[in-house]
Amino acid sequence: MRFTKMHGAGNDYVYVDCFENSMPNNLAELARRVSNRHKGIGADGLILICPSQIADAQMRMFNADGSTAEMCGNGIRCVAKHVYDTGICKKEVLKIETGCGVLELQLETTDGKVDHVRVNMGQPILTSSDIPTTLPGDPPVNARLEVAGRELQVTCVSIGNPHCVTFVTDLTDEWVLGIGPQIECHPAFPNRVNAEFVQVILNDEFIMRVWERGSGETQACGTGACAAAVAGVLTSRTGRKVLARLPGGELELEWPESGPIYMSGPAVEVFSGNWPNS
Question: Looking at residues 47-75, what average pLDDT do you find?
Fold first, then answer.
């Protein structure tokens, strides 16, 4: 099985081109094996790039633990890069089918290769039952959540996948590695949840770390950064245009009033190879 490893702001996945390869078997197990950072290729998960009946390509995504995910903001930028760079579709505006609908991406190229992508991430989902969460409010803003004997104030939204944002004064391992896994599996989130921890620096800038559902802490999370930007506006902590600084890089975010949220960031190919056990 031919694969390509790519990353967006350090959020890395193993990509399989199903325009060229046949669909692999046992996808959940394959995702677990290739994602293993000691015995596999090493990644935050597996993404399949497939033909689509309604878009230029389809993205199917599996987390490192083999579970499926609806969407990945960093991953979809790399899908667009592969689709353009390999000639599957040579358009500077692409439409990619995902588990949360068809998204539009604007590509920036250097020497004929995509290096930066702006994604229309669609309207954030703000209804509790659709996020989904049992916390009160549409959406829950500064809602109380009891975790590990602590009472947190959290804001929850969906960017096609569920997010729980906690604003903190200091980004520590205690928050991300200690509290993050417990938020992920909290009963208030029936489909589990991605947990973002955000420290606001300025009205137009924040730093953040993410504990991702099914993958643990990652270097970046595109949908998580979008969720944090939305939460920043809903709690009056940030403006509608903001720079997110993550361990793996930076993402530019913009949420115009009554509009979709836009995310811009890099897409980088690391290497390609052959996986012997498809």
Answer: 95
Torsion sign over Cα 38, 267, 110, 89: positive
With beta carbons less than 8 A apart as the criterion, state whether 250 and 9 touch.
yes
Regarding the domain delimited by 128-259, which CATH topology (the fold level of the hierarchy) does it fall under?
Diaminopimelate Epimerase; Chain A, domain 1 (3.10.310)
Percent of all residues in the chain with a pLDDT value above 70, rounded to a whole number: 99
Q: Same CATH topology for 2-120+265-274 and 128-259?
A: yes
| 253 alpha-carbon distance from chain centroid | 13
**Amino acid at the residue 112:** G
Instruction: Give 245: exposed, middle or buried? Use CB within 10 Å, 0-12, 13-18, 19+.
Output: middle
59 and 76 Cβ atoms separated by less than 8 Å: yes
Band (pLDDT 50/70/90 cuts) for residue 277 is: low
Confidence at residue 263, expressed as pLDDT on a 0 to 100 scale: 97
The residues annotated as belonging to the active site are 72, 221
Q: How many CB atoms lie within 10 A of CB 90?
A: 12
Amino acid at residue number 227: A
Cα gap 46→60, rounded to integer Å: 8
Q: What is the CATH number of domain 2-120+265-274?
A: 3.10.310.10
The answer to whether the beta carbons of residues 55 and 102 sit under 8 Å apart is: yes
Domain ranges of the chain: 2-120+265-274, 128-259
Residue 276 confidence class, pLDDT cut points 50, 70, 90: confident
Helix (H) or strand (E) holding 126: none
Main-chain phi, psi angles of 218, to 5 degrees: -120, 165
pLDDT at residue 158, as a whole number:
97
Mean pLDDT of 236-254: 97
Q: Is it the case that residue 197 has pLDDT exceeding 80?
A: yes
Q: What is the mean pLDDT of the chain?
A: 96
